[in-house]
Automatic annotation (TrEMBL):
SUPFAM superfamilies: HD-domain/PDEase-like. GO terms for molecular function: hydrolase activity. It comes from Streptacidiphilus alkalitolerans. Residues 37-151 form the HD/PDEase domain. InterPro entries: HD/PDEase_dom (IPR003607), HD_domain (IPR006674), YfbR/HDDC2 (IPR039356). This is 5'-deoxynucleotidase.
Amino acid sequence: MTDQHSPEDTGTAGFLLEMGMLKRAKRSGWWIAGVKDPETIAEHSWRTAIIGSVLALMEGADPAKVALLCTFHDTQETRVGDIPWIGRRYLTAATNEAISADQVADAHPAVADGLKALIDEYENGDSLEVLIAHDADKLECTIQGIEYLQQGYPAAQEWVDSTKAKLKTTAAQNLAEAALNMPIAEWQRTYLR
């Protein structure tokens, strides 16, 4: 085994190590709602990818493509953090495309090109897969808000209402309504027998 690595391998490994920060970085918007220990960005992205796959299956889109878009949709937050919507009024940040390009600047060319194209598609595309990926992000926030409501954080209601109102696909709207009417204890009784 040699210690010689190509610069592209080193750059790609650096990107992968940077992505580990998402497992520790909290979704800061929930602090505004009083949630003391909110989910991490990685936890949000993981469930967003699951939701995106489910929505894609329900809407007749490519579930693998939607899951990929969802997995990488917040990777830029290793560099700028999770800026809540209220904070965006006061800050001028680089675009997600620019941040992603910087993150993979030293990575293997196929990785850099692929991820830059993926983020550009998520931010600027208009395909059914992009629409569903955006809905998955909002539906995950809605469901997380419902869980926080059920855990005793009443200020989460604003997040539930505002994100639910932005859902565009029929599948996402229907699942949000179903989740609103299903207490945690009910799905546990029903599905964990």
